[in-house]
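Dear Dr. V.,

Thank you for agreeing to look over these. As mentioned in my earlier message, I'm a first-year student in the group and I'm still getting used to reading structure tokens, so any feedback on how I've presented them would be very welcome. I ran two proteins. I've put each sequence directly above its structure. The first is here:
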Amino acid sequence: MKYYLARMRAKDACPPQKPMTHIFWSGLGSFMAIILMSIYSKEMPFGQTDGVFLIGSFGASAVLLYGAPDAICSQPRNLVGGHVVSAVVGVTVFLVMGQFAGLASALAVSLSIVAMHLTRTMHPPGGATALIAVIGGSEIHQLGYVYVLSPVLIGALIMLLVALLINNLSSNDKRHYPTYWY
């Protein structure tokens, strides 16, 4: 037990706070992405109601895209691929075994992680995208595989476009986005 607990000992100190310019661009980018998705959700072509388009996993994606734009999980391939792959997994799991909510939830998240690893599209909010497909309620369930297209794909693309615009307005080279496309 002592050996196991020793593995949890911190090796480094907490990193310093980011510069105020980084914090500013992070806040601006996340605000722009979420407000644009909110506006778009009122004009949805699939008859969705307000709020369905703004799934919680997009909030977590905003943290990565605008708070850590140089992270591997923030790159376009990971953002779009991770959400789409996970949405397909989540909808499929719900359709096959949605009547078993606990088991379906666990399978959706774990299988989405496996699928993101296999496709090299790891984006942590993707796990939430898969989970939302299972526990999201009747409005989400009625969408079926349309959920993959809208809100997931279209929302990820809106976030990507905002990330390309906002992160590249900064003069800081470390904010320039993306570090790779594919």
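The second protein is here, in the same arrangement:
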Amino acid sequence: MLQVRIPEVRRGRRLVLRNVTFTSGSRVICLRGRNGSGKTSLLLALAGLIPHNGVVKASPEIRSPGIYVEDEEFYGHLTVREFLMIVSWFRGRVNDLFKIDYDGKIKDLSTGQRKKLYLTLALSGENDWLFLDEPFSNLDERSVNLLRDYLKGVENPIVLTTQTQDELCGEYINVEDFAP
């Protein structure tokens, strides 16, 4: 269950969303809208990474979320093995869903390979919620199916952003309804 009442979502001084109010009992909530509509900003606000003066009530409570938002430069200097070792230190368990085998630097991976690696971080450890920003974009068909099948089996609630219909989504929230 997720109950949301956020008067405004801002990125710096820019007002991105206003009067965000919805309740959902769905296990998989999909934030849908066009590019630039505020999907990622709302995802980050729900996960507690963008401060706001609203209320987000979640059951289970959001204490240890798995979060995926693309940031291709942040870990670029590390090798894949170094990254996975760090994940295991902090998250305890590495979910090697994609079986990434590469000894080079993360910055040299393709966009899809980096995405798989960063999704590995979000899916590892004990997560009470998953917040995934466009998790299926830039993945090959086999990886999309692998991830979708994995997420179908996850018992915890999931909030993801999307621009399209997806069989995984139990409920859609149209982010454009909250445009300022």
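From my reading of the second output: The mean pLDDT is 90. The helical segments are 39-46, 80-91, 111-123, 141-153. Does that match how you would interpret it?

Kind regards,
E.
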